[in-house]
Design brief:
The protein is of the alpha+beta class and 116 residues long. It is 25% helix and 39% strand. The protein contains 2 helices and 5 strands. A hairpin with a 5-residue loop joins strand 4 and strand 5. The longest helix is centred in the first third of the chain and has 17 residues. The chain is elongated. The relative contact order is 0.23.
């Protein structure tokens, strides 16, 4: 799973760079969708993020996430945030648990007609 976006100015944190919490959220959501693409609806139970370089507001980034398989009852994934040149800005690894009630809710929400 991948997505490209440009962080807007209001995402600035300390030092004028994109707030690390927002970077972590991007990585977490990307990993969720990498697992969701396999048909599993999960929630994060462990997340480890390494911030390597600062992301800058107004500069495009690309987030890439991959499903790494299953370890006992956990679903595993990792994600990377890249700058336009392909340099690694941040990396994350996560463990996720399947949530059947959330799965039923999301499946219902996904098949609903879009609001116009």
């Amino acid at each position: 799973m991948w997505a490209e976006l440009t962080p807007p100015p209001h995402t600035r944190g300390f030092g004028g760079v994109v707030h690390g919490g927002l970077v972590t959220t991007l990585l977490d959501e990307a990993m969720f969708y990498a697992i969701y693409a396999t048909g599993q609806t999960t929630m994060t139970v462990h997340l480890s993020t390494t911030l390597r370089k600062s992301a800058q507001p107004g500069v495009p980034v690309r987030v890439e996430a991959f499903y790494d398989g299953q370890e006992r009852r956990y679903y595993l994934a990792h994600a990377t945030l890249l700058d336009p040149e392909g340099s690694v800005l941040a990396q994350a690894h996560g463990r996720f648990l399947r949530v059947p009630k959330l799965e039923a809710h999301l499946q219902g929400a996904i098949i609903e007609e879009p609001v116009v």
